[in-house]
């Protein structure tokens, strides 16, 4: 039995995670639909990626890579990315990775064949830039919309909020040196105080609420 369109979309939405930009998510789903009509079965394997997840990937193939006091180096695996945490469009929900599946949906097809090229071109028609077009480190599964404003997809956050966007806020505050706690997705007093200190240091309204101006300042 062939894999269904609904299965491909449902699995892809799960893999893209909550932090994916809505425009990227919409285009990814449309890519899956267009490819399905041509009997090409596209699965999105990755979307939003936390800083820690990026550190794990960057550490692969390297003897040592320390991020936030933890060594993510893993020389037993091949290098899969040249991009450190905070530098990947995945970290801001602006990129996806994809793979093709066999007709039954049980086997990943990593060969960059005619169907793969066709899927990538469909993505480009939808506004993505394709990593396979890069001249140095070719990343064939990668599609991105780096010109989008990542902050347009992020909600207002305040004390008591929880979830992936809170974790993104904590990671951003950690990156700029204002948060030293665990990035657990829980907006507690430590997160609030770190946010207030960051806002004061950047001449923002120090209300402990992460709005558009705060998000923008965190991405500078």
TrEMBL record:
CDD domains: L-Ala-D-Glu_peptidase_like (cd14845). It comes from the Bacteria. SUPFAM superfamilies: Hedgehog/DD-peptidase (SSF55166), PGBD-like (SSF47090). This is Peptidoglycan L-alanyl-D-glutamate endopeptidase CwlK. PANTHER family: D-ALANYL-D-ALANINE CARBOXYPEPTIDASE, PEPTIDOGLYCAN L-ALANYL-D-GLUTAMATE ENDOPEPTIDASE CWLK. Residues 162-218 form the Peptidoglycan binding-like domain. One of its GO terms (molecular function) is peptidase activity. InterPro entries: DD-CPase-like, Peptidase_M15C, Peptidoglycan-bd-like, PGBD-like_sf, PGBDSf, Zn_M74/Hedgehog-like. Residues 86-145 form the Peptidase M15C domain.
């Amino acid at each position: 039995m062939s894999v269904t369109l609904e299965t491909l979309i449902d699995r892809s939405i799960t893999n893209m995670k909550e932090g994916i930009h809505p425009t990227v998510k919409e285009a990814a789903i449309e890519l899956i639909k267009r490819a399905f009509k041509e009997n090409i079965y596209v699965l999105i394997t990755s979307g939003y990626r936390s800083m820690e997840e990026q550190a794990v990937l960057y550490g692969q193939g390297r003897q040592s890579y320390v991020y936030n006091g933890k060594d993510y180096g893993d020389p037993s695996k091949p290098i899969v990315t040249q991009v450190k945490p905070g530098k990947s469009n995945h970290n801001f929900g602006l990129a996806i990775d994809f793979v093709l599946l066999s007709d039954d949906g049980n086997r990943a097809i990593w060969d960059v064949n005619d169907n793969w090229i066709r899927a990538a071109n469909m993505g480009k028609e939808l506004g993505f830039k394709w990593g396979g077009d890069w001249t140095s480190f070719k990343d064939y599964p990668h599609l991105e919309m780096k010109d989008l404003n990542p902050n347009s997809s992020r909600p207002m956050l305040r004390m008591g909020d929880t979830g992936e966007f809170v974790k993104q806020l904590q990671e951003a505050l950690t990156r700029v040196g204002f948060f030293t706690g665990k990035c657990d997705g829980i907006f507690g007093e430590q997160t609030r105080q770190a946010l207030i200190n960051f806002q004061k240091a950047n001449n923002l309204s120090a209300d402990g609420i992460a709005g558009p101006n705060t998000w923008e300042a965190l991405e500078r």
